[in-house]
Design goal:
It is built from 8 helices and 4 strands, in the order ββαββααααααα. It is mainly alpha-helical. It folds into 2 domains: about 140 residues, no CATH class; about 55 residues, no CATH class. α1 runs antiparallel to α2 and α5 runs antiparallel to α6. The longest helix has 25 residues. Pfam families: DUF4055 (PF13264). InterPro entries: DUF4055. This is 62kDa structural protein.
Length: about 260
Amino acid sequence: MDIEEGIIPQVNGRALDFIPFLMVSHQGIRPSDVRPPFSGLCRVALSHFRNSCDREHAIFLTSAPTPWVSGSLTEDRIPRAIGAGALWVLPEGAQVGMLEFTGAGVSAMKELMEEKIEVMAQLGARMLTTTVNRNESIETATQRTRGELSLLHGTVVSVEAGINKLLRIAAEWVGAPPAEAHVEMSRDFIEATLNGRQIEGLVKLWQSGGISHRTLYENLQAGEVASPDRTFEQEREMIADEGGDMGATMLRLPIAS
């Protein structure tokens, strides 16, 4: 058997001394045996599905009433039909009744399924919920959800590290500076949108001279009202292009007492 000449992968004329492969998990970018973050939720979901199958089967077997007859019946006296138009002529001493489900087994299955639905909702919400109670501040909500969002935060950090490593590999491959290949993913998992009363308070504070135009705009950006990608100067230019004036217009805003 003839052995052909080996092919050595190269990058910019240099031999490739590593495998350009990346494995990302919520615990890092190193290949390791980690527990999937949704494994607990998946196990509860499978258990809920099994309960659903058992409940459907139990209802199928027990939901339809079944007639029964006891006594000494000859062949010609055995009932052949049932319903309003069917007449059963039974011998003296015979008994008849209907078998119907009366136990609590199916109800217990239903309660168990409802409990597992609540568990699944909690398992999913702890990692993905980012809402803020209307009566608590952003700082309080951040402290409250820090532990619940730790898994989501770890996942974002790992994905960001993985993307940056792949970008550096791609940059080196095409001859670009690897150090300049960098991205940052947002860690802002909590909704911090300002409501109408908060916006009104900021505008009133600005009108009274407590803060500057720029500080007002920065607060609107932090409150997810103004675009985070648009600078203060760009916003003023857009207002001017529309024929308005940022200072004059805002000074005439009516402030509710």
